[in-house]
Amino acid sequence: MSSIFLNGKQPPYMEGTEYLALSDGQVQHAVMSMTYSGKERAAAVAILTLNKQGLSPAQIVSLIEE
């Protein structure tokens, strides 16, 4: 399986095995460090997770567009 991060290098804070509340800046940096394929995978996981939490497809689209 290929890395989801460009050049296989993920931000150091993404290596932690303990829960960490990521800041907006850390999330933005992590996403900007992803390959196109990584972004596609992350989007799929986000949609599946939000749906399993009970959100409708329309609510998910609304959240993503905000």
What can you tell me about this protein's structure?
The protein contains 3 helices and no strands. By secondary structure, the protein is mainly α. The protein has one domain (6-65). The longest helix is centred in the middle third of the chain and has 17 residues, at 36-52. It is globular, with a radius of gyration of 13 Å. The relative contact order is 0.14.
Question: What is the secondary structure topology, with strand pairs?
Answer:
Elements: H1 24-32, H2 36-52, H3 57-65
Number of strands: 0
SSE sequence, one letter per element: HHH
The quaternary structure here is single chain
Strand share of the residues? Answer: under 5%
Largest sheet entry: none
Low-confidence stretches: none
* Integer average pLDDT: 94
> Which word captures the global form?
globular
Work out the helix count: 3
